[in-house]
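User
New here, help please:
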Amino acid sequence: MSTQASVTRMEKIVSLCKRRGLIFQSSEIYGGLNGFWDYGPLGAELKRNVKELWWKSMTRLRDDIVGLEATIIMHPQIWKASGHVDTFSDPMSTCRACKKLVRSDQVWEMLETVSWAESLRNLCPEGKPDVDGLLKWAKGKGAKVVPNLALIKDPEAVLANLAARSSEASSTQSVLQILCTSASEGPLSTPCPHCGGELTEPRPFNLMFKTYVGPAATEDDIAYLRPETAQAIFVQFKNVLETSRVKVPFGICQIGKAFRNEVTPRNFTFRSREFEQMELEFFIKPDEVVSAQHGKVASLENDPSPSEPKGDWGWEVWHKYWVEERFRWYASIGLKRSSLEEYWQKPEELAHYARATVDILYKFPFGTQELEGIAARGNFDLSQHQQFSGKSMEYFDQEANSKYVPHVIEPSAGVDRLILALICEAFEEEEVADDKGQKEVRTVLRFSPRVAPIKVGIFPLLKNKPELVKKALEIRDLLRPHMNVFYDDGGAIGRRYRRQDEAGTPFCVTIDFDTIGENGPEKQDTVTLRHRDSMTQERIRICDLLQIIQSQIL
């Protein structure tokens, strides 16, 4: 998909999200607040459904995981122990022209999504510039869209510089750098994605939001909004262990808000300053304890796709198990395996404490990006909190007759990113014929029925026919204790179907004259059940309706 096609698709998705009450810009009537988003009626239902399905899969359907809900603000020493105070930063640059801040490590990723950069890439295929085309673009369209690019300010001088530095123009990226560099000698510049100006050298920028606890607001009262939910699990490890009668291996999971002062929030809700996480810390025995207890540590060579936990599993097999579990769960809520990628971080990319990390990536319209990371974190976190707090984090294992600090496997997913992925996955436009045979574009969100915000639309054929309305309200009251339903009696049936297609509603029930027996007793107390994806309709007895729909949404 071309950059422009991806941008167009994303624009349509953003427009639909606002039009149908999925996602709104926070504080919109005051001009909005960058990096913050509100979920409307449909979005709130979608988000709640996803979180409840995750929570159920982690806690209700397992014996080895318990839940936690911890505070957003915690003791500031926690963030010192975890390393966030000293190292939780991103490289930041400032544009010398427009003065906007940009994350230095994401500049080229951002340039993949802007139209002016695509125009230049098209004029420089494989690093071979079309000089005449560049000059024409610089004096025409380019001057309007990216005024601070060096090529626009002095096209002849920059193109002469490009010819002189031809040995450095080995790729399209290096050509772009030369086109934004005003100096004929020295290092190449990096272009600002917003205006094409030169960016300053990167400098570290800590991502944590500061606040104060208490009325004094002195340096001694500084606290932080949590940048992740995981640390609360580690500091409550012993309390959970002692009150829940759990044994290693076991997990503690949490869903909650986190906050990061992102330099350049972008791509709709993908990179926000306030977001929700679904995190699991699964505590396991160190390999040496497993070996001593079982005489061996299981290998992935013998079980490359582990699915049933065994006592001789070490960190490597447990890690692979959770990678597979996460893919299985994503499939269960409607993300196709072909839309996901599995990326194993290279040794140089790993956090210093991690033995292995797998990123589950989704193919968004704006690029393939991370949904979830599954990290084998060793015992770094518990050991750090043991050191900084002075409180033991050791676990006495009766089966192994030994004490140790457990190791951890951490699947960590972003709720907001997942919601965006589900919307992108579900969004589709197709050409269909209306009731009169005229072609029209049908916009539909093909959500899995399990996550769909509304499960059933309920339509009386006519709103001025009391018998139809009465029966429709009875069906509404029959279904809504079990699922979210939407009653709609406004407009033509076809138009009502289209509204529910855009909302992602998998089923619609129409109550017509057959339902109330006006056309004979054989169809009395039956309704038309319409299926969103196929648009097929079938006649169903009202007494069977609940069971049929529940079988699809549970």
Summary: The mean pLDDT is 92. The domain at 454-553 is CATH 3.40.50.800 (Rossmann fold). The first strand starts at residue 23 and ends at 25. The two ends are 35 Å apart (CA to CA).
